[in-house]
Amino acid sequence: MMQVRLKLHTVSTIVTDGRKAPNPITIADEHCHSDRKESTVDKRARRKLITATILCVTFMIAECIGGYLSSSLAIATDAAHLLTDFAGFMISLFAIWIAQRKPTRYMPFGWHRAEVIGALTSVLTIWVVTGVLVYMAVERIINDNYEIEAVIMLITSAIGVVVNIVLGLTLHQHGHTHGNRSIRHVEEAVDAHVADSSQRTNINIRAAFIHVLGDFIQSIGVFIAALIIFFLPTWKIVDPICTFLFSILVLITTFAIIKEAIVVLMEGMPKDVDFNDVLNTFLSIEGVVAVHNLRIWALTLDKTALAAHVVIKPGVSPSDVLKEASKKIHGKYNFFEMTLQIENFQPKMEYCKQCQVPN
């Protein structure tokens, strides 16, 4: 069986009986890969995270002092939330740094998924801290042995609102994900791939922004609670009640990050890629009669890989099919990694279970 393999960013070659053909096929007959430099989104993400980390740790110290002086569990909850954010920012910075390490024989895709693991660790950490704070709130309600310094609580929470607004503006994303684009030439597709990566949202920035969003809403709640306690001192129970409400909010806002991180780690298909559309794109190529073993999976949220066996009619040039397939797929989707295997049609393929398109 004749096989042709293609991998994005590497020279494509025809392999017949295990021997490499003398003339490699490249995309558009040019050098087919661009240098894999640090993407714009990673540089921007690192700058944003460094700024956010400095702001976060500064206010965290101030809020710890304010929480201690005011005896407010709500302030302490916010400070603990900031501590978790700080840890999350540091994990994210480390993940972005280690993701730049070059691929090796033993790590063929590099360390790109380190950022996903970093975001997952960050979210799981905040869940643990949230559980501890809920326990403390329950204990406070049961014992009812606490006093709140409303003035200090009010001032601290007001500062918290301002700081979280600044953090939110620092981490806010302006990019949008674009799934389907039609680009005529493969050279343009390679350039567009770099631009597309810089447009996508870095998962660690998203995780950090969700942390800050939760902090902001929490700070608003603490500020309102401080106003209530200031004017109605006997209503001090709103302090632990705020902790319960904010804990639920944290779980809700972080669930999406957990879900997307798990999809990546389980090598699921990105939600912005249409499987049937990719399949039909292959089938629209002249000479292609079937496609099987089509697999599309996420390396990270902004890097997608594809592998497929493309079945052609007898007498059709595998070289032409390879070039046409790479041109169409790269031009429309800009996959980070792609491997195509060209196969001659055999009747048994119609009955082979492994050759059937999955549901």
From TrEMBL:
Residues 49-266 form the Cation efflux protein transmembrane domain. Keywords: Cytoplasmic vesicle, Ion transport, Membrane, Metal-binding, Transmembrane, Transmembrane helix, Transport, Zinc, Zinc transport. Its main location: membrane. InterPro entries: Cation_efflux, Cation_efflux_CTD, Cation_efflux_CTD_sf, Cation_efflux_TM, Cation_efflux_TMD_sf, CDF/SLC30A. One of its GO terms (biological process) is response to zinc ion. The chain crosses the membrane at residues 49-69, 81-99, 119-138, 150-171, 208-231, 237-258. It catalyses: Zn(2+)(in) + 2 H(+)(out) = Zn(2+)(out) + 2 H(+)(in). This is Putative cation efflux protein/ zinc transporter. The lineage of its organism: Eukaryota, Metazoa, Ecdysozoa, Arthropoda, Hexapoda.
